[in-house]
Every structure is written in C-alpha cells, then in structure tokens.
Amino acid sequence: MARLNEDNVRLAREIIGRYPKPRSATIPLLHLAQEQDGYVTNEAMAHIGELVGATSAEVYGTASFYEMFKFEPVGKYLINICGTMSCALMGAEELMHHAEERLGIHMGGTTPDGMFTLERAECQAACTEAPCLQVNYRYRFRVTPQNFDDLVNQLSSGQLTEEIPQHGTLTVTRQHIPADRGVGAVDPELVTEGPAWLDGKAAL
Amino acid sequence: MTSNPGGTWPHAPGFYPGDRPKIVTSRFEYEDSYTLQRYLATDGYAGLRAALGRPASDIHDEVKNATVLGRGGAGFPAGNKWGLTPQGVWPRYLVVNGDESEPGTYKDRLLMERDPHQLIEGCLIACYAAGLSQCFLYIRGEMALAQERVANALNEAYAAGYVGKNILGSKFSVDIVLHWGAGAYVVGEETALIESLEGNRGMPRLKPPYFPAAIGLYGQPTIVNNVETLANLPWLLRNGAAAYTAIGTATSPGTRMVAVSGHVNRPGVYEIINGTTTFRDLLYGDDFCRGIRNGNELKAFVPGGGSAPWFTPDQLDLPFEASQVGPAGSMLGSGAIMVMDSTTDIPRAALTLTRFYAHESCGKCTPCREGGTWLERILSRVVDGKGTDADLDQLLEVGESICPGAFPHASNEKLGLTAVPFPYRMNTICFVGPSAYAPVHSALTLFRSEFEARVTKRTLIPVTAVGQ
Ligand SMILES: Cc1cc2nc3c(=O)[nH]c(=O)nc-3n(C[C@H](O)[C@H](O)[C@H](O)COP(=O)(O)O)c2cc1C
Ligand code: SF4
Ligand code: FES
Q: Are A160 and B135 in contact (CB under 8 A)?
C-alpha cells in the first residue's frame, strides 16, 4: 500500500528543510501520511524513515507514543468525547453512554459502515464548555444527547463535509516559508556564533 | 465594533471580557481578530518595532524589570529564565509550548485561535532580546483550528516582512517554524517537548541539567516559554515595564488568564488582575462566575489545574498570589479552576483526574508507571463499591512511594487540619506521578468519610489463608 505520494514527498522535503535535523520532521510527516491514507501505514512509516534517516522501527517507536496516530483504518469521523474532570462534572459519562447506544458500538469501536469511530478522550482545553467533544478534532461544545443525535445525522447525510474533512486532515492551510524570506534551519554544527543583532546596538 | 463588558462573543467561546484591563485579550472582541489586517489596525507589531529600535540587552532588561511570570505552570519569571543560558554557547533556540492539556486549562488555545499575530510578535521579541536564532512553535495536535490560524498568520507575517530575513528591514533575522504535536499530555513538560521536537517519544529527560536553557534542543541552550507568557510581550514593549507593573502586585504583576469550569453559574475564561483577585471574587463575583449553580453550596475546588491539591470554602479569600497559595497547600499552576458543588461525588471526581495522569504516564519511572496505575485501580474499585477499608490506607501508601513525606494539603477548620505547604518531595522524573496522587490525597484528606461510606467494613483475607 501507500508510501507517500509525489505531492506529499515534495511537501515532506519542504518540511524537513526547516529543521536543523531531519528527524525533527518525523511527527509532521506522520500527520502527512495519516492525511493521505486516513491512518499511518507500515509502508508510509518505512518511507518516512528513509526521508528523515531513521529505521522504520524508530519511526514506529515514535509514532506509537502519540494518541492521534492510528495504525489501522478508523471511521471517516473520529468522535472523541472528553471524560476528564470538568466534563465529567457536567455529564460526560451520560453523554458517552448515549453515544454508545446511538451508534451501537463501544468506546474504541467503529460502526460497521466505517462512518464513525468512538473514543473516550482526555481534556480538550474547552473545560468551560463542558461536556465537549471533537469530530476529527473539530469542536462541539456543551453537547446534550439531542445535540449528539443531530450531529450524527448531519454527518451521516453529508451536511458537514466542508467544515469537517475526513479523518487525517488537520488543516487546509499549511505553513509555507517563501525562499526569499526564510533564514533557513540553524544547524548547531554549522552555526557556532552569536546572532548579528547582539552587537550592543539597536537593530533599527 | 462596540465593546461588550460582561457579555460574551460567540466567536470566542467561553470568554467573558468584563470591564478590566486587557493585556492579552484586547482583540478578542473583533470577529476578524486573527487577521493581519485587524492586527495592524490595532497596534500590531508596534511592540516589535519599538523593541528593534533599542539594543537587545535593553529589551531583556525591560522584560526582567516587568517580572513577567511564566504562565505554563511553574511561574518562573521569563526575563530571569532567558538569563540562564551559558555564556558563549551558540546557537540558541526558542521553543514555544502550545501543548495546553493540563486538565481544566483553557487559555493558550484561545490566544492561538483568536490572536495568533500577538503570539508571533511575542516570539520575535523574545528571540531578539535573548539572542535566539530559530523559533519552533509547538502546537498541540488536537487543536486543528489553532494550527490553521497560526499557519495562516505566519504566512501573512512572512509575506509582509515581519518574520524571516531582515525583519522590518533590520539586521534581525529569525524563522518561526510551526510544529505539530500528536496527542500526549506529558509532552507539555519542557524536556519531553524537546524530545518530541527531535522526533522521539515524548519522554521527559533525566535531570540535571535542570533547565533546557543550559542544554536543550540538539544539546543547545533552549528557552521554553508558554504561549500566554509570550503573548504578554507586545503590550509590554508598547507600554513599558512601569505600566505593566502598575497592574497587579509587585510579586505578581500584570494580568493572567484563568478558566473556571464545573459547577458555577457562568463557567468561562477571564483575564483577571494578577495578585489581587481572590477565588471568592472569581467564583461569586458578578463580573465573573456569579456563584454556584442552582444556589448549591460550594464543596471544593481545584485552584491550579488537575495537578494541584484541592481547596475548600476555607480558602476562598486567597488571592492569585503564589506566595500565599503555596503556604496554603496548593499552587496556581496553569490558571485552571475546577469547581465542585455539594452534589459532587468526591471519590468519583478524584478518579477522573487520577485516571488521566495514570493514562498519561510515559512509563519512564517506576513510581509513576506502577503507582499511577495502582492508584487508578484501587480508586476505581472503591468508587464501584467493591473496595475495603484497607484500600484507603493502601492508596496513601502507594502515594507515599511516589511522594515520600508529608504531601501538601489545605487547612480545614471543621476537620481541625493545618496546612502542609507546597511543594512536595518526589521519587519521579517529572510531575505526572505526583499529579496522579494529588487528587487522591486531597479527596481522602478532606472528605475521608465519603470514602469510608463507600467501602465494606472488612479486612482483606490474605490469599494464603483461603481454604485453610
Ligand atoms: C507534566 C507536565 C505538563 C506540562 N504541560 C504544559 C503545557 O501544556 N503547556 C505549558 O506551557 N507548560 C506545561 N508545563 C510546564 C513546562 O514544563 C514549562 O515549565 C513551561 O512551558 C515553561 O514556560 P513558562 O516559563 O513561560 O511558563 C508542563 C509541565 C509538566 C511537568
Ligand atoms: S513521572 Fe511519569 S510521566 Fe514523568 S517521567 Fe516519570 S513515568 Fe514519565
Ligand atoms: S475536562 Fe473536558 S475539555 Fe477539559
């Protein structure tokens, strides 16, 4: 299956070029792979290893530490319901039970049609808007069981495809450093002096 | 656009502006606050311009004089931290900690989504003042909108000459690289953040060295600062240290962002005056949370993020001042207050936090890896009504193996408890292990009867005795 495609290899090289050491690009490239295929394939990890100078085992070692990377297909929509304290105080458990019933799956499961995966998540930095959830990392706040049903219906009928791309796509905008504007990676093996502006005088 | 004191703006979910001085949230009222156009129309990049008009060491002094306390949890003054880099070792890096994931904490995400240029300007001022040659902006992976907004803002800022080579036509040049996280709480710890940025599993590094300022990214001096800390700098450079310290108190100047969640009438994010605002103001004030929901009694609150020992109504009059909250037995941490009313099932509430830290343990040290899991399992069994008397003591015993000696807790008049001051001793590399214990210890110390009511009054029969 899927190594990174041509466009992504080009992007990958651009990203690698921003770091003093190629391996620093490992996580960003894993996100690229997940965006391409919906999850991170073994072939993609081997390919990333070639690009950053690591073995595929090392890439997997890194990838497997992080919750967001999936190594098997998940639903088109990954629904993460927060269960940490503030959300729990405001009814997260009830919301989770409701979600399990509505979708007919347990936490961690995927619906047979491949549309939804349900996960129990930890604090999403939206504690004042509890209970909350994310669909492919897009927020829904103060979610009632009714809101949850409406959300599932909207997702199923394709009404939210523009707002919420399929699992793997985090952003539509990427950073791009124009060649004539960028300083370039500051490699500690090549740069050993202090920066020019520390000459005791104003820069402007 | 008209100001909306006390109200809310739907585009900044949870934020209530009130009628207070604003250092980092002044643009939230504009729906397009995240665009370069709006930023430039509202003093944007004026702080950077002012900074570049003076020698770098001057700017460093200005930040030192203002005592900008770190907003990531430890409260270490930024200006002093920048001074910890070893002489003559180059290059040096800036790593921005945008990994916000401490339970209860919600502020950095708003700052990144609503005012990304302010953060970028703050990064640039820090790099200029401290001589940092490249900046990495590490944003938590799950924050898709923040990544989108910061990516957009960086692209705008590069195109307009605010970031990159010869900024504003000067000799100051620095790149800001947007970096994505991928979901792991412990990566917020600064040495784990650096490991993650090097492409590794995000495990904290052994100490010493205590500060990445000495040995950090790629073994070079590295400053790690929180998003909110850096977001303070543009205002500071526009208005000066004297104006900054005129707000708040001498030891806690300026403002800070706090998130109050749980059982209050108006949970929300507030920019409050540092040092003087009290927990009572915050929980009951008209300008803030307007009291406990349904007219209920306040039972307990977590004053500084999930890692912090708990307070009860006895501590309501403490101000946001580390030198008072520490001796009272807790910490201000990341500005996250979680409120529990009289209906709260305390053992269950503690479990939601202990489970969090047990799950987020990176596994590098035994007391945290094993101890956290034990705490979670024993506590779950107690919550499920399957625990015994002995379990309660065992919880404290396991805690003792993570944090030997007296663990900090608040005073309590009714229970006749005097406070044990912060901090604690620990057998672990980072604070995740102790954080798994903090909620258990607080809950058991302050609400032991609720646990006792939950367990069966029998002692464990040793396995060997069965069938004898
Ligand atoms: C387990 C753990 C998690 C942390 N998470 C964060 C975080 O998400 N964001 C943050 O800014 N600081 C976090 N910190 C604190 C950082 O280690 C560091 O002190 C901080 O980023 C320094 O920035 P400041 O001096 O500007 O506050 C965490 C610390 C620990 C021990
Ligand atoms: S305390 Fe826990 S999270 Fe921190 S280094 Fe040790 S095992 Fe890892
Ligand atoms: S506890 Fe759910 S978002 Fe923080």
A: no
Residue B118: partners with Cβ closer than 8 Å, 6 or more residues away: B24, B27, B39, B44, B111, B231, B234
Q: Note whether A130 contacts B: Cβ–Cβ < 8 A.
A: yes
Ligand 2 pocket member B423 (CB < 6 A):
no
Question: Considering only CA atoms, which residue is closest to atom 30 of ligand 1?
Answer: B189
Residue B460 and residue B468: Cα distance in Å, rounded? 15
Q: What are the C-alpha distances in Å from A202 to residues B55, B80, B123? A: 4, 22, 18
What ipTM describes this predicted complex? 0.98
Give the pLDDT of residue A1.
Answer: 60
Over residues B410-426, the mean pLDDT reads: 97
pLDDT digit string, tens, across residues A61-114:
999 999 999 999 999 999 999 999 999 999 999 999 999 999 999 999 999 999
The residues in A 41-100 lying below 8 A from B, measured between CB atoms, are 52, 54, 61-63, 65-69, 80, 83-86, 88-90
Alpha carbons A29 and A51: distance in angstroms, whole number: 9
DSSP A110: B
* Cα–Cα dist A122/B184, whole Å: 10
Compute how many other C-beta atoms are within 10 angstroms of the C-beta atom of residue A149: 13
- Please tell me which of the candidates B56, B104, B198 has its beta carbon nearest to residue A127: B104
| Portions of chain A given CATH number 1.10.10.1590 | 6-63
* Rounded distance from Cα B434 to ligand 1 centre (Å): 15
Q: Is the pLDDT of residue B458 over 90?
A: no
Domain count within chain B? 3
| Residues B82-120 pLDDT 10s | 999 999 999 999 999 999 999 999 999 999 999 999 999
Tell me if chain B has a CB within 8 Å of the CB of A108. no
Q: Do A68 and B52 lie within an 8 Å CB cutoff?
A: no
Contact B141 A68 (CB under 8 A): yes
Residue among A138, A174, A125 nearest A14 (CA): A174
From the candidate CATH numbers 1.10.10.1590, 3.30.70.100, 1.10.820.10, 1.20.120.910, the one assigned to the domain spanning A6-63? 1.10.10.1590
Alpha helices for B107-214 (secondary structure H): 108-114, 116-130, 144-159, 190-197
